[in-house]
Design brief:
The chain is of the alpha/beta class. The chain is about 30% helix and about 15% strand. Helix 7 links the parallel strand 10 and strand 11.
């Protein structure tokens, strides 16, 4: 019998990457423990604690499966990994030969496929396909790309030294974004002020110094109101604006269109409170506006994200202690931007990327426009931050897959990403998948998306591999995650999947690394230290910080300065200055503002619904609404309701919450029912999934990115009965 051992790991069950310890005995992970560093020890949630339950789950995929029935019929035969890869390579080669390389598309998730090492982008760029997308197109990756339009990078907040934290709808909690939650608490204990902008009385709002209950979807207008106060009262950094910004006069003219009376009318927040918040932020000696999953999912998303970046810049909070730092690439680790070989994809093929023409903000079109300044400042021509700066637009991609216009897409690979429930207009995604000739899913569980695949390959998990977590180039700190146990014999890392496929398709010379150990050694080679040497020094690798790097290098924008008026957006034919655009308004028939994409603490995105310890904490989806709205609609806490939009409907349980803003309904993200596999089509994927509610027609989309308006579209609600299929204990099967 092996002796029990404990190793340092980085959890990838969600996107935050907590540093933990894992115990194993006899080749099985038995327990997850807090980190032994007292500063990191609080960073553990019940999802991380449940890792042994997830990794050892009896329904975990362990053998490759090949579809033998109709697509979605859930009939399979077990085959070997080698046979699966041989057949996949042969079928993909035929599709590319018939329809061209752009007929191949991929959707993935950085959180669940952290061992890819950009081999997916390398493979696609070498064969000539630009059609790679990810859930980060709707969450953080798109924010990274839009930040680059202003100052050429995506900044990281300095929580530990800041004096003011501004949360636009973001609500870190003990079991969700746990490290951010703990850093906010620590900053507050040291005197930092907290401003929360959220329709709800969220957990963070309850402990805030100021809470602005704005209407959902009005973030851009609120930011313009803040700038009006800051400019009118001279609260901006005049020297920095004079020396390091362009477009101030154009921005000020736009800001003058938003007097506080107008902003009050748009947002529903009293103008005096708007002014008080703006002053508190601008006068702080170091302030941060952390990334938020709320602002990046609105009809004015590009403008609102840009306004966050502009607020940082004009108030002197950019690349300074207590503000937000522009880290650049790590000196010790080769970036995925370098490994992806983006220069090998021709301009002709890049122009075929879906979204390139209509919604280019995070596509190759903008990446090429930023290529020269990026190389000048950061030493590399491409900066694929949080994987989000060279993506296809998912709505355009799935529309093309479904319709065949402007060209056919016939092969779709999905890795660690339950694509059917992860993007807007779920019915269109379903049609797109049904139209494919080849679907390959690489997963650890059978998801609704995997049920539609031709081949399902089992993946590995974070306790089964060595890895260096680099925050997807967002920051410069590196964290080592140690392999604890062996993966199932027929499972593969996403790195191994792409490497083995490349070797079968004539690209072996471009994939010289045989395994994860070799690619990690290659990526660590700039440090002149091996994995073992770094591990002996400790699980984290720090790079000396340098502030105000722009004094030496300038900013990675076409002008070399902070672009308050974006030259790139202007050259593309968009408004170069941020604006507020009103989303679809409630009507008599659809009187509520529905906001979706909100995660529940036990789950990340669409995962963990089959994990007993987590599902018990949230057994069914719940719609949150205000008591007055519930009374008006004849709904009671615990009753069931049907929420409808003009685009679709969901069924869920009612949770009456005094914390909700009247006239708003919150819908949790990603619900399906693993226990209904074999009873309901695609395991109940269409019963309660928020992805069916939001349209991706042009009137619902952000112009520059093509991001749907998830935060405040019209809906209506009425009582219903609990579906019979959902009346049994979800954990009884």
């Amino acid at each position: 019998m092996e002796h029990e051992t404990t190793k340092h790991v980085v959890c990838s069950i969600c996107d935050i990457g907590c540093q933990l310890r894992a115990e194993q005995e006899d080749g099985r992970v038995t327990r997850i423990l807090p980190h032994d560093n007292p500063l990191l020890a609080p960073n553990i949630c019940f999802k991380g604690v449940a890792a042994p339950e997830i990794h050892n789950h009896p329904e975990r995929l362990r053998t490759p499966l090949k579809r033998v029935g109709e697509r979605g019929a859930d009939r399979w035969e077990e085959i070997s990994y080698a046979q699966a890869m041989d057949e996949i390579a042969e079928r993909l080669s035929k599709i590319i030969g018939q329809h061209g390389p752009e007929s191949f598309a991929v959707s993935t998730s950085g959180w669940n496929t952290q061992t890819t090492h950009s081999m997916d982008r390398r493979f696609m760029n070498l064969i000539g396909s630009p059609n790679w997308t990810s859930g980060v197109s709707l969450c953080a990756g798109n924010t990274a790309a839009v930040n680059r339009l202003t100052y050429g990078w995506f900044p990281m907040p300095d929580y530990l030294n800041t004096q003011c934290i501004v949360l636009f709808g973001h609500n870190p909690r003990q079991h969700s974004w746990t490290p951010i939650y703990n850093m906010i608490k620590l900053a507050q204990s040291k005197g930092a002020k907290l401003i929360v902008l959220d329709p709800r009385i969220s957990d963070q709002a309850e402990v805030s110094d100021l809470h602005l209950r704005l209407r959902s979807g009005t973030d851009a207008a609120m930011c313009l109101g803040w700038l009006k106060v800051i400019f009118d009262e001279g609260l901006y950094d005049e020297e920095f604006v004079r020396d390091w910004c362009v477009g101030f006069d154009e921005l000020k003219a736009r800001v003058d269109e938003y007097p506080l009376e107008r902003v009050e009318e748009i947002t529903g927040v009293d103008r005096s409170l708007i002014a008080e918040a703006a002053r508190l932020y601008a006068n702080a000696d170091g302030a941060v506006i952390p990334w938020t999953p709320i602002t990046d999912q609105q009809i004015s998303s590009t403008s609102a994200i840009r306004l966050h970046s502009i607020l940082r810049a004009v108030t002197g909070n950019l690349d300074v202690p207590g503000g937000e730092s522009l880290g650049g690439f790590s000196h010790y680790y080769r970036s995925e931007s370098e490994l992806g070989l983006h220069d090998r994809l021709s301009d002709t093929q890049k122009a075929k990327q879906r979204g390139y023409a209509e919604h280019p903000a995070y596509t190759y079109r903008v990446a090429e426009m930023l290529r020269e300044p990026t190389e000048k400042v950061w030493g590399q021509p491409y900066a694929d931050l949080v994987m989000g700066c060279h993506m296809a637009n998912p709505s355009d991609l799935f529309r093309t897959m479904a319709t065949g216009a402007p060209y056919p897409i016939k092969a779709f690979f999905v890795l660690g990403n339950n694509a059917l429930l992860s993007y807007p207009n779920q019915h269109q995604v379903h049609r797109a998948l049904r139209a494919q000739e080849l679907i390959v899913a690489h997963e650890i569980f059978m998801t609704p998306t995997a049920l539609l695949a031709d081949y399902v390959l089992p993946g590995d998990v974070f306790t089964e591999r060595n890895h260096v977590a680099d925050s997807w180039s967002w920051g410069t700190r590196l964290t080592l995650s140690e392999k604890v146990v062996e993966p199932p014999a027929e499972a593969s890392s996403s790195f191994q999947f792409w490497t083995d496929l490349a070797h079968r398709m004539g690209l072996a010379e471009h994939f010289p690394w045989k395994n994860l150990e070799e690619i990690i050694a290659h990526r660590l080679s700039p440090s002149d230290k091996t994995w073992a040497e770094w591990k002996a020094e400790g699980p984290m690798i720090f790079q000396d910080s340098e502030h105000q790097k722009y004094l030496r290098t300038g900013f990675a924008t076409p002008s070399g300065k902070v672009e308050l008026s974006s030259s790139i957006l202007g050259d593309l034919g968009f408004d170069p200055v941020p604006y507020h655009r009103e989303g679809p308004l409630p009507t008599k028939d659809y009187p509520y503002r529905v906001f979706t994409g909100v995660r529940e603490d036990p789950f990340f995105q669409t995962g963990q619904r089959n994990i007993p310890s987590l599902r018990r904490k949230s057994p069914v989806p719940q719609l949150f609404l205000h008591p007055d709205d519930a009374t008006r609609e004849g709904l009671k806490d615990g009753s069931w309701a049907r929420l409808e939009t003009e685009h679709g409907h969901v069924i869920a349980q009612i949770s009456v919450q005094t914390s909700m803003k009247e006239g708003h309904i919150r819908v949790p993200h990603g619900w399906w029912y693993p226990e209904l596999r074999g009873q309901e089509p695609l395991a109940g994927a269409f019963l309660s999934s928020d992805a069916v509610l939001c349209s991706d027609e042009p009137e619902f989309l952000d112009h520059e990115q093509g991001i749907p308006h998830f935060k405040g579209f019209p809906g209506r609600i009425q009582p219903t009965t609990q579906p019979e299929a959902l009346q049994s204990d979800p954990l009884s099967n």
